[in-house]
Amino acid sequence: MACTWDAQARRKRTYMAGKTICEKVELSIKRALSSTSFQVQCEAENRQITLRGIVQSRNDRTLCAIIARIVPGVCRVNNLISVIERGPQLAPAPHSPDTKRSAD
After folding, report:
1. Over 70: is that where the pLDDT of 80 sits?
2. Which of 82, 19, 18 is nearest to 51 (CA)?
3. CA–CA separation, 28 vs 70, rounded Å?
4. Using CA atoms, how far apart are residues 68 and 84, in angstroms rounded to an integer?
5. For all residues of the chain together, what is the average pLDDT?
6. Element spanning 77, H or E
7. pLDDT tens-digit readout, 24-74
8. What is the reported pTM?
9. Where are the domains of the chain?
10. Is 44 exposed, middle or buried (0-12, 13-18, 19+ CB in 10 A)?
11. pLDDT at residue 75 is higher than 80
């Protein structure tokens, strides 16, 4: 039985061909977190990568590590990504009216 390759998977492999492990990791993370604001950099040494940067939630931090781990060639992930969770935006306090009145 012949193997049938999914066209999308084939394009992904072709696009990733010739990239370093860190380039593959960063591109994969960028694709997964495209709807959020983040800054993630990758450093590689002997198939061990270190992720550094800032994301908006613990879930995004965990997702970055999972994505990095499944990139072919990665053996170990050291996740040093920081989380900056933003609470609900509070409306600025209204200015109090001036209580001083001039005498007429």
Report:
1. yes
2. 82
3. 10
4. 20
5. 78
6. strand 76-83
7. 999 999 988 887 788 899 999 999 999 999 999 999 999 999 999 999 989
8. 0.65
9. 20-83
10. middle
11. yes
CA distances from 53 to 26, 37, 62, 96, 103 (A): 11, 11, 13, 41, 60
| CATH class, 20-83 region | alpha beta
* DSSP, res 71: S
27 vs 29: CA distance, rounded Å: 5
Distance CA 44, CA 29 (A): 15
* Dist CA 5 CA 28 (whole Å): 20
Strand partners, 79: 51
Strand order in the sheet with 76-83: 39-45, 48-55, 76-83
